[in-house]
TrEMBL record:
Belongs to the yippee family. This is Protein yippee-like. PANTHER family: PROTEIN YIPPEE-LIKE CG15309-RELATED. The lineage of its organism: Eukaryota, Metazoa, Chordata, Craniata, Vertebrata. InterPro entries: Yippee, Yippee/Mis18/Cereblon, Yippee_fam. Residues 52-149 form the Yippee domain.
Length: 152
């Protein structure tokens, strides 16, 4: 009989009723729209709420702390971009050589781990001595990020 009780699940309220009568108010109102539960948004890293941060404009995954910002004077393929020392919640594609405004570099596209949007790139190798400071650094285009927490 216990097995029978588990089979008689009341689907509208997701409780085990055991086949008994449903109490008034246990079911949603007739005209009420069905409640959709969204999948939880989980990111690999959450940055402290007390710090100014940059997040993905598409899914709000944290990307970088303001303290990791090196320069605001970079140009991405879709407009202005920022250079960061380190970032979180991003994946890296394969490295390839590209001729950028400042010369030949080996770069790998970076994308948001949550929504998979391409955000910018990571400098893997700079071929010119004057550009070596960019190695291991990250470019995120302004059009793909938003400022969060503590900006006035």
């Amino acid at each position: 009989t216990a097995a029978l009780g588990t089979l008689l699940r009341c689907f509208p309220c997701q409780r085990l009723c055991g086949g008994g009568a449903v109490t008034p108010g246990a079911l949603p109102a007739a005209g009420a729209p069905p409640r959709r539960s969204l999948p939880p948004r989980t990111f690999r890293s959450y940055l402290p709420r007390s710090h100014r941060t940059y997040s993905c404009v598409h899914c709000r995954a944290h990307l970088a702390r303001h303290e990791e910002l090196i320069s605001k004077s970079f140009q991405g393929s879709h407009g202005r971009a920022y250079l960061f020392n380190s970032v979180v919640n991003v994946g890296c594609g394969p490295a390839e050589q590209r001729l950028l405004l400042t010369g030949l570099h080996s770069v790998a596209d970076i994308f948001c781990q949550s929504c998979k949007t391409t955000l910018g790139w990571k400098y893997e190798h700079a071929f010119e001595t004057s550009q070596k400071y960019k190695e291991g650094k990250f470019i995120i285009e302004m059009s793909h990020m938003v400022k969060d927490n503590g900006w006035d």
